[in-house]
Amino acid sequence: MTTLISKIRITALLCSISFSSLAALAGETKDAGGGGAMENRIEIKDFAFNPQTLKVKSGEKISWVNRDEEPHTVVSVEKQFKKSSALDTDKEFTITAGAPGTYTYFCSVHPKMTGTIVIEK
Ligand SMILES: [Cu+2]
């Protein structure tokens, strides 16, 4: 019984650690070290996706984060990945890069906002 409780405690501790390192990562770009899956981040700011074109390898994660006061969405033009819900300020949307190819996407609230993901093997 005591071991179970200490396991739970350790898990809770680990969770809080990974949460704080995530928070630390949020303010930085890549190169934070620590290993793990590389995260490719696209910032949505001033009604634009930045970077406009992102190259990733299949299997990597891609996250969008909205830095505008307006809600935005991420929708694949050819429905190649699940669309996001409306992202409020500082909300994130993450997908895992699938089959190699070029994926264009847009914001369904502001269809002039477009971006491209190039997935390589
Ligand atoms: Cu938008």
How would you describe what is shown here?
The chain is an alpha/beta fold and 121 residues long. The protein is built from 1 helix and 8 strands; from the N terminus they run αββββββββ. A 4-stranded mixed sheet has the order 2-1-4-6, with no helix packed on it. A hairpin with a 2-residue loop joins strand 1 and strand 2. The longest helix is centred in the N-terminal third of the chain and has 25 residues. It binds copper (II) ion (CU). Copper (II) ion binds next to loops.
Give a brief description.
By secondary structure, this protein is an alpha/beta fold. Helix content is 21%, strand content 34%. Mean pLDDT is 82; it is low at 17-35.
Query: Helical region count?
Result: 1
Terminal CA distance reads 48 Å
Number of E-type strands: 8
What small molecules accompany the polymer chains?
copper (II) ion
Evaluate the radius of gyration: 17 Å
The pLDDT mean sits at 82
Spatial strand order of the main sheet: 2-1-4-6
Parts with pLDDT < 50 across at least 5 consecutive residues: 17-35
Q: Kindly estimate the percentage of residues that lie in beta strands according to DSSP.
A: 25-35%
SS-based class: alpha/beta
The main β sheet shows up as: 4 strands, mixed
The helix/strand order is HEEEEEEEE
Q: What share of residues is helical?
A: 10-25%
Which outline best applies? globular
Secondary-structure blueprint:
Layout: H1 2-26, E1 39-45, E2 48-50, E3 53-57, E4 61-66, E5 75-76, E6 92-96, E7 101-106, E8 114-120
Parallel strand pairs: 1-4, 3-8
Antiparallel strand pairs: 1-2, 4-6, 5-7, 7-8
The protein binds copper (II) ion.
